[in-house]
Amino acid sequence: MLGPRMEGGLQAILDKAGRVSVRFAREMVAFRGRARIVDLVYFGLLISLTGFLLKLPLQALPWDSSWFANAAVDIVLFVPCLALFCRRLHDQGLSDWWAVALLPSLPVNLYQSYRAVFAVVHQEWLFQPDPLGGWRLLLIPVGLVVVALALGPGTRGPNRYGPDPRAGRAAAPA
Fold first, then answer.
1. In terms of pTM, does the model score above 0.90?
2. Stretch 135-153: mean pLDDT, rounded?
3. What is the pLDDT confidence band of residue 115, given thresholds at 50, 70 and 90?
4. Residue 57 — very low, low, confident or very high, per pLDDT cuts 50/70/90?
């Protein structure tokens, strides 16, 4: 049994987790508004857990069907990632158009996983050069830009995308 002090602390943690989960579900595909950097941490943990739980039963499928099901899960989970990235851009006063930097990552990752999974059947792929070749190297600077934009400091106070999320949940300016 936990003491009253421990139970209160545990209850506070569960309450906070519940509030974050409800907020996450509400804002999961919202492209409007602003998001804090700490939202990235909560979101990263929650989306990783969600992806793991969704993909775990898919491992029982045959390997080729499993790849298609896993790819579908990746595509579905990409939308909330894009929405959060747009809200982080808004927090910095930037347009959604900067999120275009994320778009090449999805097809390249799907192609790489397809190539890895289906190399079991097409073993000659293991000895052929990757058709993407050096093009994948171009994703490194793109990835660095995405990380810099995601972790950049937000603007203080309200901006054209809404109130400062660090200042509480005040009403948006008219």
1. no
2. 82
3. confident
4. confident
3-class secondary structure per residue, the chain:
CCCHHHHHHHHHHHHHHHHHHHHHHHHCCCCCCCCCHHHHHHHHHHHHHHHHHHHCHHHHCCHHHHHHHHHHHHHHHHHHHHHHHHHHHHHCCCCHHHHHHHCCHHHHHHHHHHHHHHCCCCHHHHHCCCCCHHHHHHHHHHHHHHHHHHHCCCCCCCECCECCHHHCCCCCCC
Would you state the structure tokens that stand for residue 89, as one six-digit string? 């851009």
Q: What is the pLDDT of residue 7?
A: 59
